[in-house]
Amino acid sequence: MEYHVKDLSLAEQGKNRIEWAEMDMPVLRKKIRERFIKEKPLKGITIGACLHVTTETANLMRTLKEGGADVYLCASNPLSTQDDVAAALVKYYDIPVFAIKGEDEQTYYMHIEEVLSRKPQITMDDGADLISTLHMKHQELIPNVIGGTEETTTGVIRLRAMAKSGALKFPVIAVNEALTKHLFDNRYGTGQSTIDGILRATNRLIAGSVFVVAGYGWCGKGVAMRAKGMGAEVIVTEVDPIKAIEARMDGFRVMPMAEAAKLGDIFCTVTGNIHVIRREHFELMKDGAIVCNSGHFNVEIDIPALEEMAVEKRRVRPFVDEYKLPDGRRIYLLAEGRLVNLAAAEGHPASVMDMSFANQALSAEYLVKNGKGLKPDVYVVPEQIDREVARLKLDAMGIEIDELTPEQVEYLNSWEMGT
After folding, report:
1. How is the cofactor bound (predicted)?
2. DSSP letter (8 states) at residue 277
3. Is the pTM of this model over 0.90?
4. Structural domains in the chain?
5. Which of 294, 337, 352, 391 is spaced 20 to 30 A from 397 at the CA atom?
6. How far, in Å, CA of 281 to CA of 302, rounded?
7. Could you tell me the strand order of the sheet in which 46-51 lies?
8. Are 145 and 121 in contact (CB under 8 A)?
9. Which residue ranges make up the annotated binding site for NAD(+)?
């Protein structure tokens, strides 16, 4: 198929929203796209992208195409596609998209297959489904691949497991590990968009609630910070002792999920792991507890266990499913356990995605120039790219910073001078 979207008549609305997001993405729009138009660093390169189909992603796709690439896009989550954006990319920007919000699992993987059928030379992942499908089902395509990029913590975890086992057959740049990505996108983007998703789905008051955050990585830090800022009493659960201490010193209560389950009004998982909230936790939750996930996959909450426990299930609001337990307690699952910030809201604000997608674009350019000399492994974003993105962002914000004097440079590079 040439493309597969819900409805092309939504394209004008999508175009307006893409342009609105573009206004808040000056690094990608001006600093990178304008250079790409002139230099065409991706000329002749086919890029297969499995990303959340949002307004911000649309502007990344436009930049890659302006750089000379042939771009094909599918969704990285069945509920994260913005159908009007998908339609606009097809109709106004001539970028083939295979994504429909709410698609079933069979359609989801059919769309991944469509992208892989274009024989991409560079892959772009948001969770590593494109790369894993390529490695498991299409080994014949591997010699054609220069390298890939990965946007998420979950995807990087999967890729490092592939590399450790020897399964990874080409180099991948972990865009998620860039300082200009996880320090800002994961923390401020996930923090704001997760709260946004919960509020849109439930219209519940955050202030005065007990808000349980499972995981205190950069995403968990952001969610906890924003929940606290809205007046919630925040509890953090962790398995890492260092992160647990950090959460406590940041002012949050820290305890095992078995204890937090008795207290929480709202639960949000952001760990990247499986079954963080399980049957034994559901059994302890109060009537009316709200459970959601802002980690990448819908496995952090043990939904099969909740299905088995429930005597009745009904959808009470868009993105809110009520599970009634034998004793009459009700537990509310948001967005089918998928990313609540993208399923029930619009994902991260454009301003923070500006840096993340600047890293994606420059990493793709780096792979075209250097990928054939890299061994199959997971690589961090080169420091010069990370710093360049930060510099461009500051410049776009009209912010100037100091420079080291020659004396300071000499001091930092010497060892003779003491107290």
Report:
1. Binds 1 NAD(+) per subunit.
2. B
3. yes
4. 8-181+349-396 (3.40.50.1480), 188-343 (3.40.50.720)
5. 294
6. 10
7. 97-98, 70-75, 46-51, 122-125, 147-150, 172-174, 378-380
8. yes
9. 152-154, 186, 215-222, 238, 273, 294-296, 341, 348
